[in-house]
Amino acid sequence: MKKDIIQHMVDAFGLEEADVMDLFNDYLGAFEKNMQTLDEALGAKNLMEIKRAAHTIKGCALNCGDNETGAVALSLEESAKEENYADCSEKAKLLKARFEALK
Amino acid sequence: MSNVIKVLAIDDEDYMLKILNVCLKKPDFEIETSSDAMSAMTLYKGKHYDIILLDVVMPGITGLELLSLIRSTDQDTPVIMLTAKVEDNNGALLKRISGDKNTYYQSKNFTKDELVGLVTRIVREVRSSKVKADYFKEMEQNVALAGEVQQFMFPKWSSIQNNAQLSFFFLPYMNITGDIFNVSEISDGVFLSIAGDISGHGIQAALYMAALNVSLEQVLRKFKDGNFAPHDVLNHLQGFMRDIAGERYMTCIASIIDFNRNKVFFQSAGHPDFLIFSPSQGRINPNPDNIGTLPVGMDPDAKYSAEETVEVNIPDDAIMFFMTDGLADLQDSIGNTYKIDPLEEFVGTFAKSGLLPSTIYKIVDAVFRLGYNDIKDDISISAISKLPAGTDSFFFYLRPVQLEVDGVAQQIAQRILEKTSNDELSAKIEVAASEFMNNIILHGYAGRSIANQTIAVNLKFSKDGMDLTFWDKAKEWDMQSSINKDEVVSDILNIKKSGSGRGMAIIKSVVTSILRKRYADVLNETTLSVKY
């Protein structure tokens, strides 16, 4: 999984491996920051903020070839749009698991 | 222009900004980044960027709102909207930006090559368009300047030379012209008139026009004793056309107008005949036998001879009108031209009292007012007549500068004093004339080129008073809003209704009425009437 993302970064951005690791760590940093935002939004049941955090996670994920994360984030964004809070919580757990796996 | 592409990137996610930095590196790119709309606006206002990359979804001011802010003052800088909206399959975002030709859409799952390719292509296109636009703008400015310079090669729109009065109307189809008009006094009371039309349009015809004008000066130097005939002029021009103009030719009518003997000698090289109108005798056909020759330059080996010169006797009050074919080519809104030659149609109406500075302008104005105002060719008309003898009418000419106003006002006052022996009236009209020229006419020239411009003034006495008429090419006089525009157009502007312009109070206290008209949207005619 991690290997695929790194390979995508090499292919997509023409980077050396050392630079790719920096970029990958930046991606993880962005993922973590947005997960915190998502957690806070879930706690506050702020669907607008949930949607925005999911959207941002999706954008970063798609950019670095992390399509699985992108798909979950998209699904979460749609649940937030449908104001289905229970679904949002479930999908946020999937995202968190995804983040832990990447770490 | 530097080849480096300057980029402003705005995204609330630092990771995305890092990706953009990774993709758009020196030396080909200089990228500055911002994570919110407000700081982005500060950067944007501070310097020029070749392109802006803008995230659609941002907290606070969104990307689309920021785009609207930018577009409120800048429609040209290209903007690429970056979006993770994978669900935008229905094209909602595209619809919102599709009316803006300089805004593009890019999904965030781009590769470096894709982004670099897109940014480079867009900036190249914009730069190329700007180079072309700048080039055409400069060309247009140069052509406009050339048009202004050409004005110096034409006769003044109104003038008096010795015992002749001249009038000239010129309206170019596209700023510049290939028409030639030249009137020169070659000996006392004898004038050489050249009217010509070089084949083709645009810059080439205009350049030949300029060169031919120089050549005409050579004619005058070559025949400085005034002992030459129309065919000598045509042969000189023929040599010139053969040498430099290649396959171009020029229709031309060369005339020698002798006001001492009341005769015109002319030769037409494929040009429309001129028109003679006499207020006392009506229209006179100058060329009943339709004698004419080939246009100048059409047959490089042709020689013009005295045999084709036509001699015509003219009455003392004859007015000679020379023209190119632009007036007859005027079209109405559905493409029809006027049914007969407009000059022939209206000359009897507008020249029945003799040639005035406004006569040609009235004729053109009449055609315009009939709806034939779509110009398809340069319009050039000149008129020349002998200055009427007598002591009831006096012309004055001045450049539209304050320095010359006082001198003309004093000359007007002197004429009035000589005619009426009325000191007070003379002084009052001097003040009124001075006020009118300074505060109405000269103000109308503000911001306009006065190169080759002239103001014509006529003082005409009648048994119960006098008319002081001014002709100027300044802007249309701004009347008070209380003045009904139709009344002004249809003319009678009673003094009690007028009141615009500084100095009007003084003028109103002196004159009995003011008549104000504007012809062909270029010439103002104002008559201040005083009744004893």
Give an overview in words.
The complex is a heterodimer of chains A (103) and B (532). Chain A is mostly helical and 103 residues long. Helix content of chain A is 86%, strand content 0%. In chain A, α2 (17-43) packs antiparallel against α5 and α4 runs antiparallel to α5 (85-102). Chain A has five helices and no strands. The radius of gyration of chain A is 14 Å and the shape is elongated. Chain A has helices spanning 2-13, 17-43, 47-63, 67-81, 85-102. Chain B has 532 residues and is α+β, with helices and mostly antiparallel strands. Chain B is 35% helix and 26% strand. Chain B has helices at residues 14-23, 37-46, 63-71, 92-97, 112-151, 202-222, 230-244, 342-350, 359-369, 402-420, 423-444, 485-489, 504-510, and strands at 5-10, 29-34, 51-55, 79-83, 103-107, 158-161, 164-171, 179-187, 190-198, 250-258, 263-269, 275-278, 282-284, 310-313, 319-323, 379-386, 393-398, 455-462, 465-472, 492-493, 513-519, 523-531. In chain B, the strands form four sheets. A six-stranded antiparallel beta sheet of chain B has the order 6-7-16-15-12-13, with helices on one face. Chain B has a six-stranded antiparallel beta sheet with strand order 17-18-19-22-21-20. In chain B, a hairpin with a 2-residue loop joins β18 and β19. In chain B, α8 (342-350) crosses α9 (359-369). The longest helix of chain B is centred in the N-terminal third of the chain and has 40 residues, at 112-151. Chain B is elongated and about 95 Å long. Chain B starts with a strand and ends with a strand. Residues 479-500 of chain B have low confidence and may be disordered. Classes of the chains: A mainly alpha (103), B alpha+beta (532). Chain A binds chain B through residues 11-15, 19, 23, 26-27, 29-30, 34, 52, 55-56, 58-60, 62-65, 70, 74, 78, and chain B through 12-16, 18-19, 22-23, 55, 57, 59, 83-84, 86-87, 107-113.
